[in-house]
Amino acid sequence: MLATDPDGVLIRLRDLCLALPLTAEKVSHGAPAFSVKGRMFAYFRHDHHGDRRTVVCVRTGGRDEQDMLIELDPDRYSWPAYIGSSGWIAIDLAEPDWLLVEQRMATSWRLAAPSSLAGMV
Questions:
Q1: Per-residue pLDDT reduced to its tens digit, 2-38
Q2: 119 in a domain, yes or no?
Q3: For residue 96, what are the domain limits?
Q4: Of residues 45, 113, 110, the one with CA closest to residue 83
Q5: In this predicted structure, what is the pLDDT of residue 97?
Q6: Which key words are in the record (predicted)?
Q7: φ and ψ at 77, to 5 degrees?
Q8: Is the pLDDT of residue 41 over 80?
Q9: Is the pTM of this model over 0.90?
Q10: Residue, of 1 and 104, whose pLDDT is higher
C-alpha cells in the first residue's frame, strides 16, 4: 500500500539509517538510498514504477530468509523488483512497525558493512 505521508515516512527512515555508523545517503535510480562505506543497505521506494506501494528494501541473508519472511507475513514483506534475486526484501511502510524497521536496518547495515566494522552495530 501507499503511505499517506511518504515524506514523513522518508524522514523517519532517514533518521534511522543515518543514525547507523558511517552511513551516507544518495539518490540512486531516482530514489533515496543509504550505504555504509559505499555498499548499499537500504532503498526507499514510493510508487516505484506505479506499484502503488511505499517500501524500504533491505538486505537479507539470502533466499531462505526471503522466503521465510514472505511466508511469515506476506502483507509486510514482498519480493522487490530488480534486486530481489540479489538477496533483498521489501518491507511495507504504509503502516510501519518502526521497531521492526529499525531492527531490519541494523541487520541490513551489518550485512553490507565491511567485516572490520561489523561489531559497530
A1: 898 999 999 999 999 999 999 999 999 889 999 999 9
A2: no
A3: 6-113
A4: 45
A5: 96
A6: DNA-binding
A7: -110, 145
A8: yes
A9: yes
A10: 104
In a domain, 15, yes or no: yes
- Our count of domains for the chain comes to 1
Residue 65's domain is classified under what CATH number? Answer: 3.90.1150.30
Q: What is the reported pLDDT for 14?
A: 98
Residue 15 grid cell: 533518521
In a domain, 102, yes or no: yes
User: How many residues in the chain?
Assistant: 121
Please state the rounded mean pLDDT for residues 35-42.
Answer: 96
